[in-house]
# Entry
Amino acid sequence: MPIYSHSRIATFENCPLQFKYRYLDRIKTDQEGIEAFMGSRVHEVLEKLYLDLQHSKVNSLDDLLHYFHQNWEKNWHDRIVIVKKEYAAEHYRATGERCVRDYYNRHTPFDDGTTLGLEVAVNVKLENGKYLLKGFIDRLVKNRNGCYEIHDYKTSRSVPQQHYLDQYRQLALYQIAVEEMWPDVKEVDLVWHYLANDVDLRSKRTAEQLESLKKDIVRRIQEIEAAEDFPPNESALCGWCVYQYLCPRKKHLYRTERMDEEEFVHDDGVALVDKFAALKEQESLLKEQLQELKDAIKAYAERENVTAVRGTNSKVKIQYQYRTKFADSPELRQLLEENRLWPEISRVDDKLLLNLINSEKINPALKAQIRTYQEEKEIRVTRLCKL
# Structure
């Protein structure tokens, strides 16, 4: 039975090539991002806090901060990567300490309910057991009202908007598992603690939403299993990827960043790109000069009432053409969106729209509506010819 997880599916969505390196090729790496390292240390503290409470031991804030710093020192290693160079390791350490301090002060005396488990392993069977999803709940609670709460700790700086959390699938998948594991579950709250901002957020899911989520996850798994190509997807997340040294989009950048000055200057790739960049800069300047000359020739031709102007060995012909344009209006965008054409067009693009209304994809009535935003514009085109 294929085993999946929320993070495994999300990795494929973010970058199929990273998914291939990690889950298919199983390439191991000893690098670790400072954000992940800091998050692990904070999670360890909160796990200790509630584990000791289950044994009737109440830790002081100083006890927990001492545990945090002790684990930071014990687990620190020289393969930890700091992407944001403007921050040092001590900045992240201070942030982790603040996460612990703020959480302790906000939630003491920690009597929000009964902790049923910490790092609770859960399984979700899909498609009649064809697929299995595994995960771990940071903390599972049954509150005083009998509601089950699935708690998740986040140490990232960004706090998502509520509508994003209401669609976030990881804890919703855990809810499916919890409802199967505890038959008395009547109500479940999904709870996120954004520790770096000292913010707690909640969300709920209906039975219909959970059923829809199951179907969506199955579709995504089937997409993964049908994949034959695993292209890289460049994004803001690339800086934190541990496979940059392998990725065709990143490995030359990764390698050159680690070169000394002598190596860098003599690298063939660096030399070629520098030459290309210099020529492109000249090209931009030439384009500006050419446009100025075109405008001057058009003005001369109009003044002299001619459509061809000769030089020593060449001539320039001025031709009048008509080009189809569409008014980029909110009404046209709405019309395309209502008829589910906006993803195909993606913007008010004259050529794409013209191809669309000349095709058989849409009905005549809709074509007629789109044509109401169409207009013909006269343009002058200059062409250089040998005499």
Summary: Residues 268-304 form the longest helix (37 residues). Residues 116-226 form a domain with the Lambda Exonuclease; Chain A fold (CATH 3.90.320.10). Residues 192 and 382 are 62 Å apart (CA to CA). The mean pLDDT is 91.
